[in-house]
Amino acid sequence: MRLYSLSVLYKGDPKVHLLKAAYDVSTFNFFQRSSVQEFMTFTSQLIAERSALGSRASVKEQEYLCHVYVRSDGLAGVVIADNEYPQRVCFTLLDKVLEEFSRQVSKMDWPSGSPATISYSALDGYLSKYQVQTP
């Protein structure tokens, strides 16, 4: 059971853009890592774009399960995990992250924000905390 990506996005007009993301690509071959990370960023944006405000969904993409939660204020979170990772845990994590993000980052910064301009550093910690260590 593994988490690969945790992203916070903003679903505004006309498109979705990434505000902050964390990735764990350590299980991939060194030469594949950047393309895997690119795929996860693209997939996260696409899924958030296709989801309605106020909705939750789980979408299978290749060998991954992508869990998306788009709040009614346009803030969205996407977790990309393997097929065995519990769906309920993913949505609990998304709830927690989006709630904390909305408290720490001003709503005025969401429409124009980018990973370089948004200061929110908790994603890497959540990604490693929610990894399930297999014995």
Can you give a write-up of this model?
It is found in: Endomembrane system. Belongs to the synaptobrevin family. GO terms for molecular function: SNAP receptor activity. The chain is of the alpha+beta class and 135 residues long. The chain has a single domain, classed as Longin domain (Beta-Lactamase, 2-Layer Sandwich), CATH 3.30.450.50. It has three helices and five strands. It has helices spanning 33-50, 87-104, 122-129, and strands at 3-11, 16-23, 55-61, 64-70, 75-82. A five-stranded antiparallel beta sheet has the order 2-1-5-4-3, sandwiched between helices. A hairpin with a 2-residue loop joins strand 3 and strand 4. The longest helix has 18 residues, at 33-50. It is globular and about 40 Å long. The protein starts with a strand and ends in a 6-residue tail after the last helix. The model has no long low-confidence stretch (mean pLDDT 94).
Write the layout of secondary structure elements.
Layout: E1 3-11, E2 16-23, H1 33-50, E3 55-61, E4 64-70, E5 75-82, H2 87-104, H3 122-129
Antiparallel strand pairs: 1-2, 1-5, 3-4, 4-5
Descriptors:
135 residues; alpha+beta; Beta-Lactamase; five-stranded antiparallel β-sheet; 3 helices; YKT6B protein
